[in-house]
Amino acid sequence: MVFTIGLLGLGTVGTGTAEIILDSEGRNPLLQEIKIKQVGVNNLEKPRSVTLDPGVLTTDLESIVNDPEIEIVVELLGGLEPARSLILTAIRNGKHIVTANKAVIARYGDEIYTAANQAGVYVLLEAAVAGGIPVIKPLKQSLGVNRITSVIGIINGTTNYILTKMSTEGLDFADVLAEAQELGYAEADPTADVDGGDAADKISILAAIAFGERVKREEISCEGIRQISATDISYAEDLGFVVKLLAIAKGGMGQSLQIRVHPTLVSQDHPLANVNGVNNAVLVEGDPLGQVMLSGPGAGKGATASAVVSDIVNVAGILKSNSQGKDLDPHLSCNHDNYAQLMPLAEITTRFYTRFLCNDVPGVIGYLGTCFGKHDVSLESIVQIGFQEDLAEIVVVTHDVKEGDFRQALAEIENLDAIASIPSIIRVL
Ligand code: HSE
To answer: What is the second-level CATH architecture of the domain 136-296?
Structure first.
């Protein structure tokens, strides 16, 4: 059989995808039956590192999603438009979709999956989360019988690279970001990565699968790593922690779902603490499973293309087994349409690390203890850890507390004349 596919985009991942398909020897035999009919690009003149048959490249992306011969459309454009419109047109034309686009799925997944279910086609997205690490299929299939209680991930390689480098070399955020941009590890516009948006897109997808409910992306609380300083990383290390940007989804077993992305102090002996550099990891906890951690390369040409092509082969396998026209396989489709009610941040329970800069006068530590106590915030430790010029630095680590209570205590503490500033508030896993 021949399975005819059209690619939208020939950037890094598109090139990796074409390279795997065109070099099929020693890989899955179904690859030999996949034919790339068209590849949609912006610029026909741009030099390409992959050699395609003449006439395969086109700037007419609409023609790909409307081509009756193309059975699978592989969307690798990224961004919201025209990706969303092209995916929807392809679906309405009865084509299966493989995509690496977490942004479009996180925001328009409901519209896209509703259309796909109506059209009886698959939308597969293994490459959209954690690059080459299989997480979508394991969550849906291999772990699907568990009651999942949490999914916690390091799912942005750029920020993990920056935090790792800040930690190993004692550098500040801005210096590491500039170097990462020079080396091409970070985008020229790093906003989506460093402000946590990319991780929020990905955890919204993972949470929807793990907890079986649709998630409104805009309801996810999201903090990035711009405010993390070398000072905090060093103090965290003294206290036995590393700093990681975590994407957290917790719930199930009668608990409301909480989904958040923020820098987090992680105990040095926690499995996620040793995931360094551009690597990603996803820690899944469920009943009766216990914990499973999936880790590996979360981005890059080969790793992401590996996930894209595996999804193409999955669809080809379904087409080959002649099950088309029958109901969609629930293991590969989206079969929930209710929306998750997310727990407000003020209601979550977590530990906090907080650094205060204050005048070194009698009574400050007592005042902090009293204020926290008044608001039901129990402290694990309070240490005057050093000086910044003539201001004393006090670091407080709390026990598990309700975030709303903690914020109320801080609002009161800020009013004390002796408190000059509160440079850092970081949650602790
Ligand atoms: N920009 C992402 C990251 C890779 O840094 O992990 C693509 O999802």
So the answer is: 2-Layer Sandwich (3.30)
